[in-house]
Specification:
Blueprint lengths: L5 E4 L5 H10 L3 E6 L9 H8 L7 E6 L4 H10 L4 E4 L5 H11 L3 E7 L6 H7 L4 E6 L29 E3 L8 H8 L3 E4 L4 E3 L2 E2 L1 H11 L6
Parallel strand pairs: 1-2, 1-8, 2-3, 3-4, 4-5, 5-6, 6-7
Antiparallel strand pairs: 9-10
Helix pairs in contact: 1-7
The protein binds the ligand O=C(O)c1ccccc1N[C@@H]1O[C@H](COP(=O)(O)O)[C@@H](O)[C@H]1O.
The site of ligand LGQLAAA5 has 28 residues, from strand 2, strand 6 and strand 8.
Length: 218
Amino acid sequence: MGAVMRVKICGLSNVETLNAAVTAGAAYVGFVFFTKSPRHVLVEQARTLAQTVPVGICKVALTVNADDAFLDEMLESVPIDMLQLHGSETPDRVADLRTRYGLPIMKAVGIADADDLPAIADYAQVVDQLLIDAKPPKNADLPGGNGLAFDWRLIAGRRWAVPWMLAGGLRPDNVAEAIRLTGAQQVDVSSGVETTPGIKDEKMIAEFIRAAGGKNGH
Ligand SMILES: O=C(O)c1ccccc1N[C@@H]1O[C@H](COP(=O)(O)O)[C@@H](O)[C@H]1O
C-alpha cells in the first residue's frame, strides 16, 4: 500500500471553511499571522477557530519574521501544534525558536532555480519539516500565498533528511501532476482554493483534497 497523502489547507479564517477542510480530510490546517496578508487572523479569532479542530489534525501557525513577544502572546492563547516560518528566519533563529517553544518547526524555503536548492539541505539540519515553496517575485507584498508555482522538475527525485511538503501555486487541477512529478507525500495550498484573495471556497477545498488523494487517517 502506498504512503498516505497529507494535505495542509492554509489561511483559514472562518469556521465554515475550517470545517470544510476538516471534513474533507485535511491533515493540517493553517492560520496566518501576518498583517499584510488577506488571510491574516487575530490571536483571539485563531484561538476560537483552533479550539474547534479535532485532535489529530495539526494546527499550524504561519508567521513571517515574528518576534518573541508576538510568539509568546500568540502561543500562550492559541493551541498550536506546529510553527511555520515563512520569512527570512536564519537557521540559527529557527534553532532558537525550536528550543524556546518546544514545538515542531516547518521552515519555508523559496525556490526559483537550481541555485536555491542548497538552502533546503541547510534548513533540514535544524527543522522538523520543510516547506518547499515558490520564491516570491521581487517587490511582492507577500513572501508566500501568491499562487505561483516553481518548476517542479527541479526537485524531482530529491530527498532530504526530514519530511517535506510541496507548496506554491497548487490547485485542484494541477496538484495530481505536481505530486506525480515531485514525489511529494505532503502538499499545501492557500490561494488555489479561493475565489478571491483571502476568500476560501468549501467546494474547492474538498476538490483539492480529493485530487491530491488526501486523508488524515481518521
Ligand atoms: O497565504 C498567505 O497569505 C501567506 C502569507 C505570507 C506567507 C505565506 C503565505 N502563504 C503560504 O504560501 C504558500 C503558497 O501559497 P499558495 O498556495 O501559492 O497561495 C503556502 O505554504 C501558504 O501556506
